[in-house]
């Protein structure tokens, strides 16, 4: 019997009132911001940062820089295998969906789904599988078929009726550039995405997203301090409107200023040849409280949870499903 994957979706507003549920992946960075004594101030400040950055980039017909605001929702996908191979809706990934509020024309404009990317299986792959595979080895390497299961799960979600009923366009994921690679500035400039950077060798994250079917390009928008990595299907520059792209830039650059100020909240912009470093000292903190060490610890904890509750119990079923559902 061949297992059939069924995907389920839930959507939760990310606003000042947001509180992570006990079913939320705790490694999700926006969940980290919403805990502790400063939770509501954190949320208020980050949402204001996003709105300010959006209006800074969408400056046409916007003299007071207050025309737009962004609404965010957390989109969660879960997976179940039907029949006798029943898995009770194991949580897979969480992304963010943006909606643009045009206060001048009093209308709502669909933004981009994706943006942030949080994954239980990725936690397992990076924090458990990869670490164990390289234990006591003199040179770093990755296992055969590394990332295949995760990639096939993600592609199945994107091609599912659950996704296509909820979203008209394919996702764009926007992450930090790798601290293990050097990026060089090109002459290519986009009116919204900004200056394009390139590199000669893909990072492990780039390769991992390639298994998900996604291409990567690196752009540094106007007044940014470092390039961002954009993972996408199709054509990033022509498949999305300027406002859609700005919704992703403003959202994810604001989060990166909080998560990685050594790269994205520095006091000088990336040079022509740029090697990101978390040891960089010339940067400023935001007023938003974020516990990066807690996030790293939780990635390991939830990687172990995935191994115990998903990978080991259903390994044979998942391998069969993955090999027969390559898209």
Question: Can you give me a brief rundown of this structure?
Answer:
The chain is of the alpha+beta class and 327 residues long.
List the topology elements.
Blueprint: E1 5-14, H1 29-33, H2 39-57, E2 68-81, E3 90-102, E4 107-119, H3 120-133, H4 148-158, H5 161-166, E5 172-176, E6 183-190, E7 194-198, H6 204-211, E8 215-220, E9 228-232, H7 242-259, H8 261-264, E10 273-274, H9 292-311, H10 315-324
Parallel strand pairs: 4-5
Antiparallel strand pairs: 1-2, 2-3, 3-4, 5-9, 6-7, 6-10, 7-8, 8-9
Polypeptide structure, described:
Helices cover 35% and strands 25% of the residues. The protein has a 10-stranded mixed sheet with strand order 1-2-3-4-5-9-8-7-6-10. By secondary structure, the chain is an alpha+beta fold. Helix 2 crosses helix 7 (242-259) and helix 4 crosses helix 6. The two termini are 20 Å apart. The chain is globular and about 60 Å long.
Keywords:
single chain, 327 residues, alpha+beta, ten-stranded mixed beta sheet, 10 helices, 10 strands, 35% helix, globular
Taking the alpha carbons of the first and last residues, their distance comes to: 20 Å
- Low-pLDDT runs of 5+ residues are none
Helix and strand composition category = alpha+beta
Main β-sheet: number of strands, strand sense, barrel status? 10 strands, mixed
Order of helices and strands: EHHEEEHHHEEEHEEHHEHH
| Oligomeric description of these chains | single chain
Helix content: 25-40%
